[in-house]
Automatic annotation (TrEMBL):
Protein name: Fis family transcriptional regulator
Sites of 4-aspartylphosphate modification: D52
UniProt cross-references to InterPro entries, sorted A to Z: AAA+_ATPase, AAA_lid_NorR, CheY-like_superfamily, P-loop_NTPase, Sig_transdc_resp-reg_receiver, Sigma_54_int, Sigma_54_int_dom_ATP-bd_2
PANTHER family named in the record: TRANSCRIPTIONAL REGULATOR (NTRC FAMILY) (PTHR32071:SF17), TRANSCRIPTIONAL REGULATORY PROTEIN (PTHR32071)
Domain spans labelled Response regulatory: 3-117
Lineage: Bacteria, Pseudomonadati, Bacteroidota, Cytophagia, Cytophagales
GO molecular function: ATP binding
Biological processes annotated in GO: phosphorelay signal transduction system; regulation of DNA-templated transcription
Keyword terms of this UniProt record: ATP-binding, Nucleotide-binding, Phosphoprotein, Transcription, Transcription regulation, Two-component regulatory system
Organism: Spirosoma radiotolerans
Highest taxon of source: Bacteria
Sigma-54 factor interaction domain ranges (all copies): 139-368
Entry keyword annotation includes Transcription regulation: yes
Amino acid sequence: MAKLIIVDDEKPIRAALRDILEYEGYDVDEAKDGEEGLDMIMRTSYDVALCDIRMPKLNGLELLMKVSEAEKSTQIIMISAYGNVENAVEATKRGAFDFITKPPDLNRLLITVRNAIDRAKLVQETKTLKKRIYKLNEIVGESESIKKVKDTINRVAATEARVLVTGANGSGKEMVAKQIHEKGSRANQPLVEVNCAAIPSELIESELFGHEKGAFTGAAARRVGKFEQADGGTLFLDEIGDMSLSAQAKVLRALQESKITRVGGDKEIKVNVRVIAATNKDLRQEIVNGNFREDLFHRLSVIMIHVPPLTERRGDIPLLADKFLHDIATEYGSPVKEISPDAMSFLQSLPWSGNVRELRNVVERLVIMCGDEIMLDDVKLYA
């Protein structure tokens, strides 16, 4: 049942609105002024608040601003006898869902309330999803090496500095990139990922910069590239060490000038993108071998973060395994299983050439194949 609050200093108005809304099946509270209304909204999860504009102690617009600052999902519908354009414009500018004049038209009121409830649910679902995604992308570990990684992420996230993440396959480079994005000022903008190793060299430029219709055989329509898709947000170039030299030159130009040109086009397109790159290769050696541009390396590596392999932080394996057990249980909708102490010790002794990604796969296999408690023999059989 949707929960609503009426904030109005006129008792007859509150009573009339309450009767209408309760008749429609809503759970309704009342507040006699803005100050009381704000206190109740902060303490209770309301879907919608219907607020008068002119009230003692705290007027409706002031209440609206404070609710917005608190990032509550409550949708505010302003109701006032002073229904002029200026009030409506000001209310919507400050984040009101809608503005209705007194006495309200009953049909419009109910339609507006229903729409506001839908919006409140959508906002709350989005917040819940973001929290879940953030938890999935959480970097787990208490070893000194991983603490250093997390500390660097916290320092660099709030800046616009480009970051180069290095480490072996499966060590968690993508997690680092996602954490930097989610903790930074661009968190509400897109994070666009490109796996440079998975795209043929002849297609990488089209993938990154887009192409115009007829630019090459098969280009039947204009395509927007990853740089444009990430405009305002973050572009994550994974395995950049596998990018062709010709594409590297264009990426360098894009970073220098904040402009790109689609393949087959001549129009320059301005882009505002933060670039995070990752590689499992030694780019300094690739420069020596003539496979990577030194000027691009220096552009990308303002901050360097090295993610250690799992064998260098075996003490983190119980924490990681516990996280995976909970994540998999949530994903499957099943109870959380446990790993016996001797089984965990055996897990810590394994070589883990595939790093954290391999550990996650092994834990998922154990969850599927084993009983409520995962024993040593289970790990020996399935790890």
